[in-house]
Structure formats: C-alpha cells, structure tokens
Request: fold
Amino acid sequence: MITHARFTHYGRLQLLRQQLNRKPSPISDDEQRQAHHAVDMLLFVQCLLFAVGDLTRTLREAGMLRHAAKQAMNRMDALTAEVSEAAYRVFTRHTDLGRPYVDRCEAAYRIIDDSVEGISEPREVSKYKSIALALVELITEYNDRLCPRFRFDTADRLRGIPTLLRHVAAETNPLAATVIRRNVTARNLQIEIQD
Reply:
C-alpha cells in the first residue's frame, strides 16, 4: 500500500495546483533568440506549402509534370499540407495574432518569390525548385538549432523532400537559402512573441 502523500489522489491534485500556480520564469535573451528562430522556421514551413503549389503549377505549364514527377509532387503536396497544418496550430498558440498567420506567411512568401531567381530554362521551374530546396534546408537547420522547448518535431518529415525533388529536371540556385535567410525574419514581419 502506497502511503506517500504525493501518490494519493489528494497529493496529485495538490501537485497539479502547484504547477498551475507557479509563475513562469522571465525569458532570457537566448530563449528570445530561440523563439525568433522558431517563428522563422514555422513561417518557412507555410512558405514551403506555397512553393510546392507554385512548383506543381509551373511544371504543369511547362509540360514537365509527367509520371515520376507527378507522383513526387503529389507526395510533396500531402506531406507539406500535413506539416503546415501542425505549424499553424503551434504558431497560433504562441504568437500575438495582430494579423492572421496566413497573411504573415503570404507576405514572407512574396518577399521570397521576389528575391530568388531561377538559373536555367525553364526559369520558373528552376526558381520554385530552388525555393523549395532552400526552405527545406532552412527548416532543417533552424529546427536542429533549437532547444527541446522550441523544437518542431513534425518538421523532421520534410527531410525527404530533396529526394522527391530529384524527379524534377531543373537546376537549382545555390544562393537561394542565403537570400531567404537574409530577407525573411520574424523581426522583419513585426511578429510579437508571447510566453
């Protein structure tokens, strides 16, 4: 028979009350920086959904959406939709929504779309493939850098996208990740982060 108070029903309720009444510790500079990286990563997840949609559209317009590429794009569409839905839930829980999440992501994607260029013909296919690869690279990099409190484990599913993009016959811009990293941040989009 367990006689310790913490294992009884009353003891468990008392522990829950103590946890609920405990005041959160103030956010340190490192945690604030981590929070900004986490928000940037969640924005990149949503932007990846837009990039995959644009890549599918440009492949169709260029007549390059054939069997293997079409299967890869269908898998990427499903994967990015699933991960971006989870990112939406996380984002709306931890940020001040002065503007809706999707509006912020559209603003970020407009910046990305205007700043990255394709390097080979067809240029639009090259451009959107470069954007998709760069976003996956940045999501992975940011997620690996985050502490467990801010990690978004669902984003690990996106690591398979570069393999799927091998079916798209277009060259990629090696500077796309650097351009995106410099132009799109939570601070640029005036996103306020709450505890």
